[in-house]
TrEMBL record:
It comes from Geodia barretti. One of its GO terms (cellular component) is transcription factor TFIIH holo complex. InterPro entries: Ssl1-like, vWFA_dom_sf. One of its GO terms (biological process) is nucleotide-excision repair. This is General transcription factor IIH subunit 2. Pfam families: Ssl1 (PF04056). Residues 83-217 form the Ssl1-like domain. Transmembrane segments: none annotated.
Length: 221
């Protein structure tokens, strides 16, 4: 029994010249030139087989990714000090019952969310009043201890010293390895700071030498 033979069309000269294909350009299947399609198969980095154009696209994507690798930091381990303003202005009642109570309540919620998102991180608390800074709680990874500290007895007096508080935070963070982030969160209600030196020099030193990030939450009006 003879099987029917169907002619195939070559996309050669007619396609290159943009002209119409002629009847003589049609050849049978066994007369056409075979294509080595297996030569376009490549193995990617994951051991999967892909076409050559896909492999080139993957290499280009990887190359672009590594070009920006210098800006990538490991941020799984965060070490943060929270500086709380305990000066006399935190007793103002523009926020009920007063500024300090509202700030501590917000920080309780912050601690819970912080450890939900960063379970292997550490957080410490610093209080500043009377022109001094005091470490209420060193870097700690237990959210219950932090919540208990924030719910403790806090008193207000005198003026805050942002410079002393930042210096104390820097001393506690400078020994942290570079692969972990070192951060400071400042919660303050005073518009002034009683400092022994130039606060701007201290801030520049914090950002350039020690800190990865510093945030300031201002409650003053």
């Amino acid at each position: 029994m003879m099987l029917p033979c169907y002619p195939v069309t070559l996309t050669g000269k007619a396609m290159e010249t943009g002209g119409e294909e002629k009847e003589g350009d049609k050849l049978y299947t066994w007369e056409t030139k075979y294509e080595k399609t297996w030569e376009d198969i490549r193995e990617d980095a994951d051991g999967l087989l892909t076409a050559e154009d896909e492999a080139e696209a993957y290499k280009l994507k990887r190359r672009k990714l590594f070009q920006h690798s210098s800006s990538v930091r490991l941020g799984m381990m965060r070490h943060m000090f929270v500086i709380v303003d305990s000066s006399q202005v935190m007793s103002d009642k523009d926020l009920k019952p007063n500024r300090l109570t509202c700030a501590l309540k917000v920080l309780e919620d912050f601690v819970r969310v912080f450890f939900d998102q960063n379970p292997i991180s550490q957080l410490g608390v610093i209080s500043t009043k009377d022109g001094k800074a005091e470490k209420v709680l060193d870097l700690n990874g237990n959210p219950h201890v932090l919540s208990k500290t924030l719910c403790g007895n806090w008193s207000v007096s005198g003026e805050l010293s942002l410079q002393n508080a930042l210096s104390l935070a820097m001393n506690g963070l400078k020994h942290i390895p570079s692969h972990a982030s070192r951060e400071v969160l400042v919660v303050m209600g005073s518009l002034t700071s009683c400092d022994p030196g130039n606060i701007f020099t201290t801030i520049e030193g914090c950002v350039s030498e020690v800190l990865y990030r510093m945030k300031v939450l201002l409650m003053a009006k």
